[in-house]
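Q: I have two molecules that I believe assemble together. Could you output structure tokens for the complex as a whole instead of separate predictions?
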Amino acid sequence: MSFDPKSQLAGLLRIALESVVPGAVAEIQLERPKQTAHGDFATNLALQLARAAKENPRKIAERLVRELPKSPWVEKVEIAGAGFINFTLAPAAKTQIVQAVLDGGVDFGKGAVLAGGRKVQVEFVSANPTGPLHVGHGRGAAYGASLASLLAFAGYEVCREYYVNDAGRQMDILALSTWLRYLELFGDFVPFPPNAYQGGYVREMAEQIQAAHRDRYVHPAAAVLASVPPAPARPDDGAYSKEEKDQLEAHLDGLINAAKDLLGEDWAYVHQHALTEQLADCREDLEGYGVHFDCWFSERSLYDTGMVAKAVAELEKRGHIYLQDGAKWFRSTAFGDEKDRVVQRDNGLFTYFASDIAYHANKFERGFDKVIDIWGADHHGYIARVKGALQALDLDAAKLDVALVQFVSLFRDGAKVSMSTRSGEFVTLRELRAEVGNDACRFFYLLRRCDQALDFDMTLAKSETSDNPVYSVQYAHARICSVLAQWGGKESELPAADLAQLQGAKELALCARLAEFPETIAAAAQEYAPHTVAFYLRELAADFHGWYNAERLLAEDEAVKRARLALAVAVRQVLQNGLRLLGVAAPETM
RNA sequence: CCGUCCGUAGCUCAACCGGAUAGAGCACCGGCCUUCUAAGCCGGGGGUUGUGGGUUCGAGUCCCGCCGGGCGGGCCA
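A: Yes, here they are, computed for all two components at once.
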């Protein structure tokens, strides 16, 4: 049996409060003081009451302490500072956490299933399947995956979703790029546009098509270019003017239309091939990264089932749409957006925003209590219009939370690694994983709040020293495994150890650290902040190493040894539980 | 110009939705090291939280101005 010191103390305080101020309504706040001299828990209850009672908070604190029922778990109660009441727990109240951890095992720290079994969806990565994932996606993937794990562990029912943008112009550009590279294989060159996809993977797909279907999709370059507006000449410095950029886009669209005309039915094949290949590559990359999805949701399916048209029609029916310049506009300004947004162009095509409205409406129809979108920070201007559309559809926009993930800069040997997206020279997630490993990759991404720009130190991530936080945490785990192996006894006997043998300051501090785990999880889940788990693990590992350096775990005295090993096993369990939430391995040897 | 996020030790970052003397890790300085239980260990200095006001018992945290930076402001995605 375990008890929760926090609720225990809250109970004692509530009794004292009722006695001092009958009928008082106050929230009992208990926090862990930063300084050990302030005990294990502190409450600001007296300061809270002082405002209403217009009385010296220290006096109120004295009365509260006088009325506090005696408890065997509490060793000392002190009044300090402006009127804080500090509690120091008895050693037995601290060490019992070891028992609780051993009892809980892999479930220690897990939140109770919330009332109504709240369903949450986490949508993340959702990168266009037009090329390899880059390091920015890696951060979103690490964040989303561990947030989802965290929410599941905290008691939510979680659905991990990837939104596949398989319907837009970007996909057309990828298909066109592939086809142009394919034509090159037959010696007939259409100048490759600078705004088409440059990466080597495009050539690979072209070669695959050539191997499978020979010259079936070949058309003369002259025919391709016949009715396409010309591309501007490449400026000497490579910098195109605004007009030239527009010309480039028009040229690209012309090529896409030409390809569709010439290929006819076959366009769908090239398009589908490119999509299938890139999506498979992306999926494989994420699987290798340890990131899994429950659902891959196709944007195109929203069009195929008429849901996009339906969503726009629904907005129209409710009077939130007007016509201007031949396009249909959603009056998002009525819901706090800066300006109104086009949902259907004058050429009849829906905008990306239209499909996103349909997508979010669909999410809400699926009955989630909470919908979490994880976007790149460059999308922040998008939040207002999506929430506005939900409101316009009479959906509860408060159920949608958007987490923005800031950008990543890589550093190697102290120097910034340049990542120009132009000409496909960016560093891919795959390259990063190959260089620093999955564990360091995931952990480093999570060592920072997601809304802060991240400087990723690849040199540090690879180092096998105490400077490297991943190494330190994993090493603590491996070290415990090593000690247990050297001991060679039966772990199943350790829960019976006499925990009263744990008396050292470092041991009791370590126990207190273990006790923080459940509340760390709960807070991290509530704030969507997996980084706090990473910070916690780093501190737990540091506490353990400090203890290990100070005391011999395999003590001479049998009872002491067993108690210490029980504590070590509890530390190992919490390290495992925490690392699992971050998607980082807990190795037995290093 | 407008919107938005941010500014904390030399560096990289924390700080439990207003609480005590703002915390870690690197780096720096000073000691210890013929401990096999594996990254050496222990200690120390370092701050007007960008800046100026405001709110109150109390502000890194909330409000306003300024300075500096990131990101947005497409009938692109």
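A: One point stands out. Chain A has a mean pLDDT of 89.
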